[in-house]
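Sequence and fold
=================
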Amino acid sequence: MLEGCCPWPSELAETYTARSTWENLTFGDVLDRSARHFSEREALVGVSPVMGEVRDTYHDLKIKADRLSLQFLRLGLRPLDRIILQLPNIPEFVYIYFALLRIGAIPVMCLPPHRLSEIGYIARHTGAKGYVIPSEFHGFDYLELAKDVRETAFHLEHVFVAGGEAPEGTIALVELLEQPLEKDYPEDHLKVYRPNPNEVAVFQLSGGTTGRQKVIPHTHNDYVCCCKFSALMIGFAPYSIFLASAPIAHNFSLTAPGLNGAVYCGAKTVLALNPNPETVLPLVEAEKVTYMNGVPTMIMNWLNHLEKGHYDVSSVKVIAGGGFRVSPHLGRRVQQELGCRLQQNFGMGEGFHTCTRLDDPEEVIIETQGRSLTPEDHIKIVDDDGVEVPLGEMGELWARGPTVIRGYYRAEEHNRDAFDPEGFYKTGDIVWQDKMGNLTVAGRNKDMINRGGEKISAEEVEGLIIGHPKVLNTAVVAMPDPLLGEKSCAYLILHPGETMEFEELKVFLMEKKISKFKLPERLEVVEEFPLTNMSKVSKKDLRKDIADKLANEKGNPTLPGSV
């Protein structure tokens, strides 16, 4: 296995394989199988910035992915090379993703909102050899970002551009798809590069609960396992049509069951460039979508827009909610207004995943986040001392199983805290379990803010704020929000005599080139922080303080807010 990664113990790997939980398939094998069985069935529908509307059969998809694989080999990419993949939901993402997996190169899943602070660090930490970008998306110039990344990541050899012009020093992906191959690279050449299914396939990124984001290494075996069992739970079949509206690089859209699950089953994936109702609902009607997923805010927006528009969404059989808990009210709206089934999902990039089943009783689907995916999953619910609590009591969820990583990439010290000696991943989620095994998620015990499914590390943002010359100390905490679940609030202690306006703080942070979703959405300037018995900042008290202020302001609409 790639140096810096933690392999599964051999006895567990043998057990998973013997029980067919792991199938010893690579993602190249999965695509080949579907191309064999469903050659002329549509596999992918989307809009390319260069090619326009794309409607690929499985035969087309395999040809394009294989062609890119050979071109990447010709350019010198090799197994275990890391390639940052930062594309929106366009067909080129799918071609490149499978092309890299085919030859054992490792795509690093980055999201379009990531900026220099995130991409530069990830490029250096992973030793990335390549970087795949759009030329522009949502008004942002990714070519300039690539220049900045190259200034600090000297090992970055190739920048591949999907759409628009590819300036000198970069490579246009469309040219690789159209350029004739040399005779030295026949298709059979790819067989030489078939990776070991127990080798790393994909790097996902953690929510960054302790400063910088951690890199999550998933093997072919564990990632195929996740998409297979996820697909089973929602009844994916060759006639299913999946709409990807959340970023497809995100674990939820990629393999739970997502794109990977669709290809595994021979189903069709429809790519939406954004999750806005004006984009999503016409696609649902035109493509007869049967399955779609999203965070609760997305689902709520779709339902609210349906009240104004006239779209035929009767084809939808299942809507899956994830990112954070679907409220009972929203869950009932989905089933009553759309006449389809809701599936609650709870999972994390590290691989553990639960979901409700389609035939579960109504109260299970509405009130819980379901049960774990595979028969090999094991969980503990523990107190602050790591001791298991009685059934029905709340505690922190620890999990291990055939889809759960054994450690982060190049994070030996952090792994000692994040995993117990038996290999259980300490999720940081507070849950309780009923007698049927269903979990209900109550919240987090880690210093992370969940803004509509986007995870914000309070420590990372605090590390940037403290660099402001006016700031003496800072604490960033979650505050409740009815639409997004949580937003972030920055508490500041300023140097004597200083003042700060909210806009000044936002401008300072944007100059640090962080993602916009990480910006605090409220500022509270205080003279001192509440402290714990250990003289640490009591974020519990700060969270209560801001929640009380919000509740008070809601009850007194004329009351002026904070800065």
User: Anything to note?
Assistant: Residues 558-563 have pLDDT under 50 and may be disordered. The longest helix spans residues 58-74. The CA atoms of residues 323 and 453 lie 4 Å apart. The chain has three domains: 26-196, 219-251+266-445, 448-555.
